[in-house]
Known about the structure:
Blueprint: H1 35-49, H2 54-97, H3 106-122, H4 124-136, H5 141-182
Helix pairs in contact: 1-2, 2-3, 2-5, 3-4
Amino acid sequence: MNGPFQTAREVTATALPAEFAALAPPPLLLPGERLDHYHALQQAIFAELAPRSAIEWLLAIDVAELSWEIQRYRVLRHKLLETYRHKAIEAALRRIDLAGIDPDFEHQAEYYTQQNALSWRTDPIAATEIEARLAAYGFDQDAVTTEVYVQAREVLILFDGLLNAAQTKRMLLLREIRNQRLGAPLHRPR
Length: 190
């Protein structure tokens, strides 16, 4: 049942057999993701695993999908850190700019602090000036990075959980492919 199978044409290690195409639909892409990148990853995994049976193809499809998810989580985590870096710069500026300010001007000062943080993110010249100003008050890059991780800690824990779960599943699938090739049964009796 799970032995090598033959199709009407020769199947290469990287080509998904037509009979399995319906089992490997392209993923729903997020903005910035490209279908050709997904297919390149999928083809690289198929070439590496060189599935030899129907079960191995199904497992290889799952490995490719999990690998795409892992890559997605890494990119999203990076973007998350960029967003929290912006917030950390804003928080550091707030500590400097709003310290001892008259309550009547606090709202206006808060607005300018937010604008400065936005300028830091979008204008390299403003970023250099703001970073120098922060450094003068003891907020070096390490202090800002620490603030980033303090603010993002709960969301980073979530991403770590997602990454670990996907990596564990992928390892289990790879182990199952190895077991298939060694002739181990799919389900062991208890």
